[in-house]
Amino acid sequence: MLDDFMTRAALAGIGTALAAAPLGCFVVWRRMAYFGDATAHAAILGVALSLAFSLPVFAGAMAVALVMATIVSTISGRGYAMDTLLGVMAHSALAFGLVGVTFLSGVRIDLMAYLFGDILSVSRADLAVIWCGAALVIALIVWRWNALLTATLNEGLARAAGIDPWRERLVLTLALALVVAVAIKVVGVLLITALLIIPAATVRPLSATPERMGVLAALVAMASALAGLLASYRLDTPTGPTIVCVAALLFCLSSTLSGTRRPSM
């Protein structure tokens, strides 16, 4: 069954969706969209370093994503606004990564595949990495769900309950780095944030509880991945951007439906 490239692509899309969507709920609740974008952009530098030192791309992307998050957390509050720091770090890392790739002699690299994803070329080894990474992210979120939710709602309440908000931010940072490393093959570094945010934003008006939002976001992300994969195959369009387009259409539909249910003032 895994000999068929479409089957491997579908499984890769599902695995990435399961990892990204629930984590995306915390990104939306904490208003960390730009943080996710910065972490994703930094992954291209990890790709360049991985190729330079003959390391797995997954390891390089995750390592740089973690370093990016650590640096931003360390220097935040020292005279610069968080969005300014994230903008500087994200685009600097992306630029250094793109420039660094050009110095790699004897290495053939398709930059478009890393920028926008190449889900149709997913191998069995890639599939194993994606699903192992997804399992780790899901396990982290399930294990720390209540603590993460409490720290997200109110840090003072979290401290009163014996929860360290800094530790929970570290858990989120680790999970985000894992998602970036997992999703780079599916949608690319420029579209990872879309897969994190759009499904969560789509189901937010339809969710009465945080748990329901997490589950619905995962379902929307999986539907977007499968529908986008099918549409790109039929229409001969880039798969990663097509997946995001489907997710965006679902967001528009959700916004329209939730708007029509609001009582007129």
Q: Which term fits the overall shape? A: globular
Q: Poorly predicted ranges (pLDDT <50, ≥5 residues)?
A: none
The count of helical stretches stands at 12
Distance between the termini: 55 Å
Percentage of residues in strands: under 5%
What class would the helix/strand composition place it in?
A: mainly alpha
Compressed to H and E, one letter per element, the order equals HHHHHHHHHHHH
Rg over C-alpha atoms, rounded to the nearest angstrom:
18 Å
Overall pLDDT score = 82
The number of strands is: 0
Biggest sheet architecture: none
Helix content: over 70%
Short description:
The chain has twelve helices and no strands. With about 260 residues, the protein is mainly α. The relative contact order is 0.17.
Task: Characterise the protein shown here.
By secondary structure, the protein is mainly α. It is 77% helix and 0% strand. It is built from twelve helices and no strands. It has helices at residues 5-29, 33-52, 57-75, 82-102, 111-116, 124-143, 145-153, 155-160, 165-183, 192-203, 210-235, 239-260. Helix 1 packs antiparallel against helix 11 (210-235), helix 2 runs antiparallel to helix 10 (192-203) and helix 10 (192-203) packs parallel to helix 12. The radius of gyration is 18 Å and the shape is globular. The N and C termini lie far apart (55 Å). 45% of the residues are buried. The mean pLDDT is 82.
